[in-house]
Amino acid sequence: MSQEQNPWSLYWSADRLHSCVAQATDQDQTVLNELWRSFAQSLDSGAKVLDLATGNGAVASAMLAVRSDLDIDAVDKASIDPTSYLSGQENLAAVRFHADTDLFEMPFELSTFDAITSQFGIEYAGFSEASSTVLSLLKPGGRFRYVVHHSQSDIIASSRVKVTELEQLTQVNGLLDTLIKVLRRETDFNELEQLGAAYLEQDIVRTEAVSGQVFLGIEKIASGLQLRPKESIELGVAMNLRVRSELSRLQQLLAAGRSEDEMLAWQQGLLSDAGISASFEPIVIDRQESLYLLGWLVSGQKPA
């Protein structure tokens, strides 16, 4: 699958280990790492682990930091390549990564794994449907732990604001559409400047990370188009792809959020359909000035 088709392929091609933290701080990563390290330490020696929607291997990295004996396979539907994309994560060389792998078409035998993990991943495939499929790969007595998007989390809230900003930038005949027309010589910069001024007058939240970078990019393209046309066109096309890809990624993230009622329905369905008991609880970080809702922590065990 190409990066144009899967926005996560483009996202993971950058040197980033984690995703989906609304206001990335060391505290967020510390909490997540501790969840996975404690789970790793509870597993038997040499346990076989399957990490779902692994991205660049954040879960595997955290677990191997305290349990180098674990035997880990990690899958993702995106075109991942963590050992090439990341720096300073030598322990990931021990992980078998499976790129371009759908959760419903994984190349493993039933009852293969002692543990299954996922950090902001399995819910993207449809939480109930994906759970039924992946838990068939768990050995009797095997355990699972997921960190799942909460529909009311701070991650979802901040992503919703960014989606509004990105939708304005990517609307039909909007700023980015017109930029591409300028590069194709179908219109001139006057129209682009007018649209830019109109965009800045809109009553929406604009961020330096999104709108600020787009306007800086347009300024760079405008200043270099005459002297470096090929480079400027490539920059404009790449920026257009990145912005639209990020919009698609965040729209998927919003759709992945699960409410308490949805989690209860999943829990009850898992028990009635597969006889598997599972628990879930919110992950809340106390940041002194406020409480920060990170997601749901889901745990369970397959009957022996």
From TrEMBL:
InterPro entries (UniProt xref): SAM-dependent_MTases_sf
Recorded superkingdom: Bacteria
One Gene Ontology molecular-function label: methyltransferase activity
GO biological process, one term: methylation
Spans traversing the lipid bilayer: none
Keywords, comma-separated and alphabetical: Methyltransferase, Transferase
Protein name: Methyltransferase family protein
Organism name: Arenicella xantha
